[in-house]
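Sync notes, pocket subgroup
Present: LS, DG
LS reminded everyone that the earlier model was apo-only. Rerun requested with glutamic acid included. Inputs:
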Amino acid sequence: MKHTKLFRKVAALLFLLLTTVSLSACAVESDNSVRVYNHVKSSKTITWGVKFDMALFGIKSVKTNKLEGFEIDLARLLTKEILGKDGKAKFIEVTAQTKIPQLKNNNLDAVLATMTITNERKKSVDFSTPYFKAGTSLMTKTSSPIKSIKDLNNKGRVVIVAKGTTAADDIARLAPKATIRQHNDYGACTNALLAGQGDAVATDNGILAGIAKQHKSLHLVGGTVAVEPYGIAVEKGQTKMLEAINKALKEAKADGSYHKLVKKWFGNIPGFSAKEVEY
Ligand code: GLU
């Protein structure tokens, strides 16, 4: 009898202890999901990872030394939607290779940098709803006989891609006989193409359009060969920040400000009509 009483007491105590531990674990977990959001709210600043070298999307102008592009404007617009008029957008440069590591190191609140939403990447970051419909395309010298992806699917053809991008997978799938050569950034990819070290550069059409605009001897060929929907990435589990971004995107689409930005940056570029790129 005595033993049963004691056993009951111990069991009750254990139960209490376990519930407290698991409840506080839940509290810690839910606190963590608002960490980035609370931080941007209290600092009135969102630190965005953006491109600094990509015409049309995010580029530091050599003339003004200021950042400009569709994604820079979009980041500013979303910042105001999320934080109000006095909200500040801060920008840090990312490349295809550094986007995810920088986000994981807590250097950034979000990445808005021509980043395709893929299932593989979803394992390490969370994505917003898509904001731009890009597509993998090819850039060659205007004098090149290559006119489409089919022409590249031959032994001896070399396709240049930037490290850490989706283009390598697209080419491996669509032109398996071609050799893929990877370079660190698009400057190196373009130089390699100009120097005759490859037959084409493969990446998103918008990125290539920005490069081709600066080089008369280069052009885009063959249309798009794979769809690349861009999303804004946040650290995995930062649900409150992700919700705020999605809500802001929805508002920008509803009030037309998003469409104005698409028109401002892509309005007169063939193949980038609002219908083709907007979500
Ligand atoms: N959209 C491509 C990707 O996500 C290219 C990105 C980039 O060059 O940064 O892999």
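DG: The chain has two domains: 35-133+229-277, 135-227.
LS: Residues 96, 113-116, 162, 165-166, 203-204, 207, 228 surround glutamic acid (CB under 6 Å).
Action: DG to write up.
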